[in-house]
Amino acid sequence: MVGIRKNKVDNALPTRVYRGRSAYEWKPKDGTTVRLCALDAPISEVWRRWETLNNEFAIASTINGLVERFFNSADFHELSRETQKDYRKYSKNILAVFGKMHVDKVEPQHIRIYMDKRGLKSRVQANREHAFFSRCYRYGFERGLCKTNPCKGVRKFKEEARKRYITDIEYQALYDHASDVVKIAMELAYLCCARQGDILAMRTSQILEEGIFITQGKTGTEQIKLWSPRLRAAIELSKTLTKPGITSTFVLSQSYGGKWTRDGFNSRWSTDRSKARETTGLPLDFTFHDLKAKGISDIDGTLQEKQAISGHKSAGQTARYDRKTKRVSTEKNSKD
Question: Which of 117, 152, 215, 286 is the most buried (most CB within 10 A)?
């Protein structure tokens, strides 16, 4: 309930607007004070400014406003370009459902209902959107934009770890029918146990006398992948990707020297894989990321040795990529 104003003239002012020392001031319920305009401004101008700011304030208190502020934040811009792209994609479904809701009106049961319905189509995407939404709320909570994070305590769907191991025959079948850019990417992923993002971003300046210097985008691990005949051959092939007279700073470059985008490369990968399927009759139902798993799986050595080569921070991470079926002896040691 609005209190009685001391000066009856001020009854013409909008709710929660008062005369300050030098300006009309608006005091929203969150306890802040917002300057509207000078005291000599007409009442019509006070109302105009209040209505404008009130509308902006209302929008900023919605999920639309929270997501927009997160997208404009330093936290968001510190993420990798691919993660930013993924987050913008995840936001579309979130905003379609929650966009106009006040940030403090979203409750855990609303998140659960969303997850259950979204999970009917894709449980993996439901999990990714849950993670994005929670990240937005964490950003808002730390800055006083919302009271709680309703995503906390809402379980994600259990995801089965991929177990797909690419056989040598499958690898060679795709390699033989692939374009040069896919061939090079395959070899870098397999030999260096590298992620797609790190391969697409790889610069010629990372090619050293000892090997290829790689900083893993996900873990930040720095390594020099030492030369092998196959790795040298892949790098030599990469020098033929550009048109004559064009030099690129990217190892995996477009013909005009530019960088391959993730979507552009995935399209080429899909085309080459479909062509190999038609020619060989093999299903070739593996992803590009499975090539890294093959690289780790084919390393001879202990799990700890594989971890050192892969650049993972924990042996558990490496174990999830080690997919080759283990061979065990059936002979028993007998005692005389």
Answer: 286
- CA–CA separation, 265 and 270 (whole Å): 9
pLDDT tens digit string along 322-331?
777 777 667 7
* Residue 48 buriedness (CB in 10 A; 0-12 / 13-18 / 19+): middle
For residues 238 and 212, is the Cβ–Cβ distance under 8 A?
A: no
* Structural domain of 186: 168-321
Looking at the structure, tell me whether residues 176 and 76 fall in a common domain.
no
Question: What are 295's two structure tokens?
Answer: 């690289």
Residues 313 and 179 in one domain: yes
**Does residue 197 sit in the same domain as residue 281?**
yes
| Among the listed residues 159, 153, 109, 120, the one whose alpha carbon sits nearest the alpha carbon of residue 134 | 153
Let me know whether 239 and 290 are in one domain.
yes
Is the separation of the CB atoms in 171 and 191 below 8 Å? no
Radius of gyration of the chain (CA): 29
Is 215 in the same domain as 103?
A: no
- Express each pLDDT in 16-48 by its tens digit: 888 888 898 888 766 678 888 898 898 888 888
Q: β-pairing, 23-26 with 17-19?
A: antiparallel
Query: Could you tell me the end-to-end alpha-carbon distance of the chain, in angstroms, rounded to an integer?
Result: 95
